[in-house]
């Protein structure tokens, strides 16, 4: 014969602490203690009871391994396993949803990474082109400075030439005028 606790619905085993109320109902000691914290009545018949009225029960169970479980205990195990299976299936569904959500987020982030890397690549190409343009402009500027220096030298040369020419012309004019005055 199999006896189960009316509170937790589990079978009583030789290793369990078992107790009963004055009305005679049998429970796991821990289950009944928990129940009495909420309500001071028997969980089955609702007769008033207290911790002092509980009686410990020490049952002798048969150690015969050949005893076939009855249909109630087997149904109890099936029910427990079905509940556990439903919980596992629910957990699996939640984890599958989370997995799909995470995969979608990963795909979205990979797309963003690709876009950012593409922008970085484009920006690096533009920077490289602009660095090349800067080098060209620096070279052009250097050439213009050199040409400017050469032109300054030419201007100085021509200024000297013009100055000398003016001086020479003034000299000739002075010489000619002085010879003209001498003739006159």
Automatic annotation (TrEMBL):
GO terms for biological process: protein ubiquitination; replication fork processing. One of its GO terms (cellular component) is site of DNA damage. It comes from the Eukaryota. Keywords: Coiled coil, Membrane, Metal-binding, Transmembrane, Transmembrane helix, Zinc, Zinc-finger. Residues 5-46 form the RING-type domain. It holds the Pfam family zf-RING_2. Residues 92-154 form a coiled coil. This is TRAF-interacting protein. It comes from Cyphomyrmex costatus.
């Amino acid at each position: 014969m199999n006896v189960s606790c009316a509170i937790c619905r589990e079978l009583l085993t030789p290793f369990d602490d078992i107790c009963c109320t004055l009305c005679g109902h049998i429970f796991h000691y821990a289950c009944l203690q928990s129940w009495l914290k909420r309500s001071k009545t028997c969980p089955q018949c609702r007769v008033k009871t207290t911790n002092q009225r509980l009686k410990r029960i020490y049952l002798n169970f048969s150690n015969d391994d050949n005893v076939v479980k009855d249909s109630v205990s087997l149904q109890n195990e099936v029910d427990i396993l079905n509940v556990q299976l439903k919980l596992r299936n629910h957990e699996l569904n939640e984890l599958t949803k989370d997995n799909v959500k995470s995969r979608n987020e990963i795909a979205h982030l990979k797309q963003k990474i690709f876009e950012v890397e593409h922008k970085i690549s484009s920006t690096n190409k533009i920077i490289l082109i602009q660095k090349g343009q800067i080098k060209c402009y620096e070279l052009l500027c250097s050439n213009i400075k050199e040409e400017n220096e050469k032109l300054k030298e030419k201007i100085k040369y021509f200024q000297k030439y013009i100055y000398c020419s003016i001086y020479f012309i003034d000299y000739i004019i002075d010489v000619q005028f002085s010879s003209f005055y001498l003739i006159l």
